[in-house]
Amino acid sequence: MIGEPLRGRPDERSGIKSWVAILAAVVLLPVFVRHAIATEIWIFAIFGLGLNLLMGYAGLLSFGQATFFGSAAYVAGYLLKYYGVNVFLALGVGIVVGAVSAAAVGYLCVQRSGLYFIMLTFALNQMFYFTAYQWTTVTGGEDGMPGIPRPSLLGFDIHRPLAYYSAVAVLFLLSLWVMKRIVESPLGKILQAIRENELRAEALGYNVPRMKLVAFVVGGAFSGLAGVLYAMLFGIVPLESIGFVFSGNVVFATLIGGSGSLYGPVIGSFVFIWLSESVSSMWARWPLLLGVAFVIVVLFFRGGVAEAWARFWVWRAARRAPGPVQADASR
Amino acid sequence: MSVLSRREVLKLGGAATAAGLGFPVVLRAQPKEIPMLGLWSFTGAFSDVGPVLDRGMKMALDERGMKIQGKTIKYITRDDETKAGSATRRAEEAIDADGVKYIIGPWSSGVALAVSEVAKRKKTFHYFSGGTEDISGARCHRYSFQWAASPYTAAKTVVDNFMQANPKAKRWHLLVADYAFGWSVEKYIREVGKGHGIEFVGADRHPLGEREFSNYVTKAAGNKPDVVAMINFGLDAVTGAREIFNFGLTPKVPLILTWSSGVEELVQLNPEIRENMWVGSNFYYTADTPVAREFVKSYQAKFGNPPGYAPAAAYGMTRMMLHAMDKAKSTEVPDVIKACEGLEVDDLVGRMKVDPKTHQTLRPYFFMRCKKKEAMKDAMDFADIIATGSTPLPAEYAACKDIGSL
Amino acid sequence: MGEGDDIVNVPLLFSQILNGLATGMLYALMGIGLSIITGVLNIPNFAHGALFALGAYFLYTLIQLIGNFWLALLLAPLGVGLLGVLIEYGGIRPLYKAGHDYQLLLTFGLSLIVTESIIIVWSPVGMSQLPPPILRGGVDLGITFYPKYRLFVMGSAALLVLGAWLFLEKTRYGAIMRAGIEDKEMVALLGIDIHRLFTAAFALGCVLAGIAGALTAPIRGLNPWMGVDMLGIAFVVVALAGLGNLLGSIVAGLLVGLAQSLVALVWPEASVAVIFAVMAAVLLVRPQGLFGIR
After folding, report:
1. Which of A230, B14, B143, C5 is the most exposed place for a label (fewest CB within 10 A)?
2. Which residues on adjacent β-strands are paired with residue C145?
3. For residues B204-209, average pLDDT
4. pLDDT 10s digits, C225-252
5. Residue of A34, A41, A162 to mutate for B, most B C-beta atoms under 10 A
């Protein structure tokens, strides 16, 4: 099932190495990639971290994460645009809106399991979407909510792309660290236990629905943060940010990156944003490639890039050593 | 999966990176280059128009040999995905990374508002082909120009000429898209209609993207109108027209498409549905001006089909921009903007003048009547132009009170 | 809203009810198809909307090729069903060991592939499909004038729904399928090839989606995203009815269709959002759906 540790998965033991790699990526990315795209990658990674807590660790397939992302973006965007609030307040509001909307949706969803859960997350996302679509006086409907300002952060002007990138990158690193602490905490372990065997977790005395709800709320908070950052990045809250396609995109990205790992969403965000930006300018029908890539990942590479990467090392080790393979030695 | 395929994947990835992301330094335009952005839809709801918009703009640029005022024109396109968010992103990227100072497009009005904000913020020249009044109205500013005729012009042309052909059709039923643009056109039709003694026996508003028109059609039929006038566009207009036909209202009762893109919408219907349909549009390919004739001829020679509104608009806007550069004898944005204000030329649709106060292009609007199946000479011979009109929006309705400074 | 507007306007109300029943029947077809797939295979088929669209496009092309509406109406859903067999055999079955989540994700990826393929093959431009000449125009029902084709859709959808119900309730194969929804292990123990059952169930679901799409084409026209809204509504119908509950899907489909058209009379903007709100409300009070037992 989703998120289960797979053969050769790189795990948190290689902590220092992973952090170095990520720091290097954060520093080097703007050199090779347009600042706006680079910023988008980290924002999407934050979004993915939120989903992965649900999908990878709790084993809950949520198809409606855009609900929290988009709601936060709209509310914070509205406040930024019409009330000129400062950045910290906007971010705080975003996190709270993300958490609260997740609590509401989660409350309805965690009472159901399996198929119902999945269908409900999807259907509630649709409800939020159509509400945003029709409530044009507030959300702008199809046109979105343009004109979102980017006020200064602690006195620093973050209008310039590189400045904003730096701010977002710092927030991403912070979010990654917080998520790492969460998954290594008792909560993280309980969620994994629930994923493995819900009945047993319940028998052990854990309030399973409550734990799931907590996961939802935390995931929602992360999604909300990402939403506000997104609104400020492009100066607009587009309708799509609360739509099903967006929910689907983060699922794609997390899965392609590898849902069994903390860093999976980061890798996935990289792959997804990079592909969608570069391939889409070459071929208009690039979603077909995305669908095909996704199907391939689902059929053959369920641990995503993270697993494929680890498997590659195992394969290499097997090629070199004529005897039995030491799976650890190659890492 | 074998390592070999991974290598191939990496190779493709490498090529894609180089092509798609590139190095900002290298992509920045050289001083002798003028980068121009065509912001078109290649994916999303309007993805059919992206390629033809591209054609139109390219044709206009090719006519000048890709050069203006001694500089080489660098034409780039970006996909707005028919979404305000993507359009904003891509436009900003093009401005920041590619040094773009001139934007033509996008196609969709809603998306255009977002792009217009970008143009204002980044001080780039922006020409847009859609109908939303806001760009030359409540949200007007010095950097955006509007190519389509004012909805008032459209309403007047449609109502005046329809009544001339059907003087007895006094009972009108309106079907309006529930959107600021729809409300404006409705307002103007009622204004103009007063002068003709028209009785508006019914008027319904439908949400944008409506799929289920049956209830509106039933209501319309119940009012026993002499004519049904639709104020909507794209898929809504096509779906509405289809339902009105399915219910048997047309062809007995004439149907007016007040603001249509012409070919793009008509091609989605059948001759049976189009019978007794009257269409108002910003362009139709049988337009009788020297520029239009030339354009249609080369377009047809190159691509096989006559051009619809989309390529014509892209072509027309690009030409207006180039005319402004000629007049300004410069490619600096402030000079071109000042030259564009008050620019007056005989171009694609006839005499065209840019109103300096609102940045609206004052030009003729077309009114057509669709042909019966037997009268069609070929599959694309949808209609005949029966009239044009160019009455501009009266000053009292203009929502642009102060267009601001550069 | 508009002038001359009167909610107690009987002809309008009557035709709105007819509209609601017509769309409701289509929703029921979609719901039954999805319910069978979800019930037997335990995966919500995210490709259900895209397959609906494919049914419409197959109809269109078949009519271009063979010129006969009726034959096309028969063949188009079979084409979709055939595709369903290939999908189940080639995609879903290999993932049996990986678990339901991955099978579901496969359908998700497939929906993208199918929609994009439609755009590549047929172009993103919308198209129209006229009903056959015999079904054009309207008929005077006394109270109101109503299009013949919509009456045909109502009637044929009702027949199909009845046919599906009869198949599942009265035939041996249907009984096996229902048993598969109830208890897969038992069915396997009884010696029935569970894999063939899955393929058959998936294909049947696809056929129903395909025929719903084909029937819809002359009403709504064709465009590559015509299945997107349908997917959400199909989920609502199944969630309301309770998984695997076929009679429930019929009733739920009709309810949703009627609710939509009646709400459209008073509050058109909310007519779509309201469906999901109702679903949320029902599930809050009765998590197993209106008729479900599990």
Report:
1. B14
2. C140
3. 82
4. 889 888 988 988 988 887 778 888 889 9
5. A34
